[in-house]
Design a protein that fits this description.
- By secondary structure, the chain is α+β, with helices and mostly antiparallel strands.
- The chain has one domain.
- The chain is built from two helices and three strands.
- A three-stranded antiparallel sheet has the order 1-2-3, covered by helices on one side.
- Strand 1 and strand 2 form a beta hairpin.
- The chain is rod-shaped, with a radius of gyration of 29 Å.
C-alpha cells in the first residue's frame, strides 16, 4: 500500500513480530553451546597428549640418572607420579632398561588417562588415554654401572 509521501508501507501480520528471536534461541544458541563444548573437549584431549609427552620425558631423565636398572624403574615411576600429582589425569610409566649401561640409553613409555565424563557432553563419558615414549642417553662418565 502506498502512502502520500510515495513510500511503500508494508503490513506485517501481528504473529510475525519477534520470530527471528525465537529462531535464534531455538537453533543458534544450542549450536553455539555444542561448539563451545567441542572446543573444550579438543583442548583437553590435546592437553593430555602434551602432558603424556612431558611425563615420559621427565621419567626418562630420572631413570637415566639412576645408579642401577632397578633404581631406574623406581625413579621413572616416581617421576611420572610426581608429574601427574595435582592434575586430573593419572600416568603410569613402563621403563625399558635393556640398554642400561654407560653410553647406553633408557626408554620410558608413559600412558596417561584423563576422565572425560565431567565435560557434560552426552554420550562422551569414559576416558581418553594418551601414550608417549621418550629415550634418554646414559652418561658415559657416570659413576657406578
Amino acid at each position: 500500500m502506498w502512502t502520500r509521501s510515495g513510500s511503500l508501507r508494508r503490513r506485517f501480520p501481528a504473529g510475525d513480530r519477534g520470530s527471528i528471536t525465537s529462531e535464534l534461541a531455538v537453533f543458534v544458541v544450542p549450536f553455539l553451546i555444542l561448539m563451545a563444548m567441542f572446543i573444550v573437549f579438543c583442548g583437553r584431549a590435546a592437553s593430555v597428549s602434551i602432558d603424556a609427552h612431558a611425563v615420559a620425558a621427565a621419567a626418562a631423565r630420572a631413570a637415566a640418572d639412576a645408579p642401577t636398572a632397578g633404581a631406574a624403574r623406581t625413579a621413572a615411576s616416581r617421576a611420572a607420579s610426581a608429574m601427574a600429582s595435582g592434575s586430573k589425569f593419572t600416568c603410569t610409566a613402563t621403563t625399558d632398561t635393556d640398554q642400561f649401561r654407560r653410553g647406553g640409553s633408557v626408554t620410558v613409555r608413559a600412558a596417561c588417562v584423563l576422565p572425560m565424563a565431567d565435560l557434560g557432553i552426552p554420550s562422551l563419558g569414559g576416558t581418553k588415554t594418551a601414550h608417549a615414549t621418550a629415550t634418554e642417553p646414559i652418561d658415559i662418565y657416570r659413576a657406578g654401572t
